[in-house]
Write a structure and sequence with these properties.
The protein is α/β, with parallel strands linked by helices. It is built from five helices and four strands. The chain has one domain: Ribosomal Protein L4, Chain: A (3-Layer(aba) Sandwich), CATH 3.40.1370. Helix 2 (54-63) packs across helix 3 (79-85). The model has no long low-confidence stretch (mean pLDDT 85).
Length: 126
């Protein structure tokens, strides 16, 4: 009786790397500090758009001399801002709870209003 060979397939060792909440908050804090050091943050009073025309938003962004990829962080319920920003290719609008490290590092210019900045700092602190 001939015995066959047993084939042992290579298996991958599953190394679990979990990102804890503490590490995520530290990464968010460091990316905010990095962008502040790079002078990428622009803090404004509010984003009050009268009508939802894209030209009006582009005019405001041009007066701030912001170009390339722009991240707008605003917690205000402004439908005109939402409607006018979604039509621009390199502009992304998010709320302060949606801010993540990838978005901060991927965009060259970041525009945030004062109330949202306070909310973002509270999120990082707690």
């Amino acid at each position: 009786m001939e015995r066959g060979r047993r084939i042992i397939w290579p298996y991958s060792k599953k190394l679990v790397t979990e990102n804890t909440k503490k590490i995520k908050k530290m990464a968010l804090m460091h990316s905010v500090v990095y962008k502040i050091q790079q002078n990428s943050f622009t803090i404004i009073d509010s984003f009050a758009l009268v009508i939802h025309i894209t030209k009006e938003l582009l005019g405001k962004l041009n007066t701030l001399t912001l170009y390339h990829k722009i991240l707008i962080i605003s917690d205000q319920e402004n439908d005109n801002l939402i409607l006018s920003s979604r039509n621009i290719k390199n502009v992304k609008l998010i709320k302060s709870m949606g801010v993540n490290v990838y978005d901060l590092l991927n965009h060259t210019s970041i525009v945030i209003d004062k109330t949202t900045l306070d909310a973002l700092i509270e999120r990082i602190k707690s």
